[in-house]
Amino acid sequence: MFSSDENLFHFIIFFILLMALPTFILSQFVTSPYGKHFNSAKSGTTISPPIAWAFMESPTLWLTFLLFPLGKNYTNPLAYLLISPFLFHYTNRTIIYPLRLHFRKSTNNFPLNIAVSAFIYNLLNAYIQSRWVSHYANYEDNDWFWVRFCIGLVLFGSGMVVNIWADGVLMGLKSQGDGYKIPRGGLFDYVSSPNYLGEIVEWLGWALMTWSWAGLAFFVYTCANLVPRAVSNHKWYVEKFGEDYPKDRKAVFPFLY
After folding, report:
1. Which residue, 83, 75, 179, 167, is CA-closest to 126?
2. How far apart are CA 30 and CA 24, in angstroms?
3. In 3-state terms, what secondary structure has residue 205?
4. How far, in Å, CA of 72 to CA of 137, rounded?
5. How is residue 208 annotated by DSSP?
6. CA nearest 222: which of 8, 19, 11?
7. Exposed, middle or buried: residue 77 (CB in 10 Å: 0-12, 13-18, 19+)?
């Protein structure tokens, strides 16, 4: 019989996978009003973007640190190795990225309801990811662990570099003033949202590294959330810049979509 922890663990995985489809469908019609899609008439109560990002991404750090000592793999060095990329990403998202936004003096406020929704998602996701690595993962097959870890880490690292670089380009353009500009150079010559492409590749790598339903759920939901938003971003650029916007640029996947 499953323990209450196992029941909760599997229920959250099932719930995230289940919610991916309606999230994807709803996102075809509704674009969350933050960033370039900010609309003061539709956003309700707002907070500053640095505070919003630090708040909503924070569960991935503090909950992981709370749960890790409770897992049976707590003393296994491979568990620490495996969780490190996850924590590295969210250290950037929870601390470094909000600080970059603060010093770049981001102007558009962030809707509080979206920040709270993201906080809840990250709370659930942090639980299944950290619980898998610290408790349920099997580290006995060393050869297979190292194969999937190394390939996944290459994907994860490549995606994170792209994600951070693209965020920097966008923040740099915005800090110049005079409104939004067309980002150019690097992957921006191929897609409108390389920051989202980078994050999708990151969590594909994570799913491979963990080789788990938890990792797969994270990757699937990331795609369901970010691909439609990338398409919305692409349409926004085309509508705003018209003929000046590169016609061969795709939304998120180079040459494809």
Report:
1. 83
2. 10
3. helix
4. 10
5. H
6. 19
7. exposed
pLDDT digits (tens, 9 = 90+) for 95-138: 999 999 888 766 678 999 999 999 999 999 999 999 999 999 99
For residue 158, what are the contacts with CB-CB under 8 A and spacing of at least 6?
A: 198, 201, 205
Six-digit token string for 61: 């750090």
- Indicate the Cα dihedral angle 181, 228, 167, 165, nearest 10°: -110
C-alpha dist (Å) from residue 105 to 11, 108, 171: 41, 10, 9
Length of the chain: 257
What single string gives the DSSP state of each residue in 14-29? HHHHHHHHHHHHHHTT
What distance in Å separates the CA atoms of residue 90 and residue 100, rounded to the nearest whole number? 14
